[in-house]
């Protein structure tokens, strides 16, 4: 006898060494995104966003898959049965947490194993960095069952992949391996599954050591300027740096300059300045 899935059980998280490990938690459903999961994910990432003990958020998946996309029964069939109101509500709940991740206060990393299909491309793109197991399977299978890759999935493919590759990927409905995904820029790197968490931990730990305010402004800059002309981007980045100078209460810019110019203890090209020494 099956019991009804509780919304609060669809996502779990733990915090260790300033890294928040957030997991899709519907392993029996290959972590397909249901309305319950989408609502709970927004609650969880909102709760973590401004915590002082969280410097990086990693999005992983419990069980054999990262995320199989949208739950066909709960996200599509059941919401469509409610009419346009149900469809729009489910869409907004999904897109809300993907948007929050795109502009998250802390750097975010997708840690992908198993399946990453369709609707999972939204949070994949929303994360600042992405690492995959070689054995992972990336797919836009929508064309195989009568719809197009919606919810931003087509935009993700075109933004990250070469046009001919994105076109083939969307039109053919054939899967890519983790190694293919790295080759075509869907993820930063691919590696054997048993090395995935260690690599993500190493990257996250390096990000934690950096000035968190600077990392936040840097990731926003990269996302914004991609859509701008050069002149607009140049002006935007000047103003953004001015804003960072005021926003960064640790005054990291001047602390780092002192360590480089006066103390001779820091070389920008070889690592991060010492955040624990704040004298200017």
Automatic annotation (TrEMBL):
Signal peptide: none annotated. One of its GO terms (molecular function) is lyase activity. InterPro entries: ClpP/crotonase-like_dom_sf, Enoyl-CoA_hydra/iso, Enoyl-CoA_Hydratase/Isomerase. Keywords: Lyase. It holds the Pfam family ECH_1. One of its GO terms (biological process) is isoprenoid catabolic process. It comes from the Bacteria. Its EC number is 4.2.1.101. It is an enzyme of class 4 (lyase). Belongs to the enoyl-CoA hydratase/isomerase family. This is p-hydroxycinnamoyl CoA hydratase/lyase.
């Amino acid at each position: 006898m099956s019991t009804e899935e509780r919304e609060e059980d669809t996502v779990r998280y733990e915090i260790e060494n300033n890294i928040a490990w957030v997991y899709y938690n519907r392993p029996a459903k290959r972590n397909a995104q249901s309305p319950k999961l989408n609502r709970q994910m927004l609650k969880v990432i909102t709760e973590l966003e401004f915590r002082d003990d969280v410097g990086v958020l990693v999005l992983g998946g419990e069980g054999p898959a990262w995320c199989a996309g949208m739950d066909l029964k709960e996200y599509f069939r059941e919401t469509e049965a409610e009419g346009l109101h149900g469809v729009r509500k489910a869409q907004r709940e999904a897109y809300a947490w993907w948007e929050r991740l795109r502009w998250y206060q802390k750097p975010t990393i997708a840690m992908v194993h198993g399946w990453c299909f369709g609707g999972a491309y939204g949070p994949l793109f929303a994360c600042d960095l992405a690492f995959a197991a070689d054995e992972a399977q990336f797919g836009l299978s929508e064309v195989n069952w009568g719809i197009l890759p919606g919810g931003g999935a087509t935009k993700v493919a075109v933004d990250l992949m070469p046009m001919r590759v994105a076109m083939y990927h969307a039109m053919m409905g054939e899967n890519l391996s983790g190694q293919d995904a790295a080759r075509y820029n869907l993820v930063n790197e691919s590696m054997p599954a048993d090395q995935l968490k260690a690599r993500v931990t190493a990257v996250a730990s390096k990000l934690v050591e950096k000035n968190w305010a600077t990392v936040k402004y840097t990731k926003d800059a990269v996302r914004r300027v991609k859509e701008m002309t050069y002149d607009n981007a140049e002006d935007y980045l000047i103003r953004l740096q001015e804003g960072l100078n005021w926003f960064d209460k640790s005054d990291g810019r001047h602390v780092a300059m002192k360590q480089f110019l006066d103390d001779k203890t820091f070389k920008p090209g070889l690592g991060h300045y010492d955040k624990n020494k704040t004298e200017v």
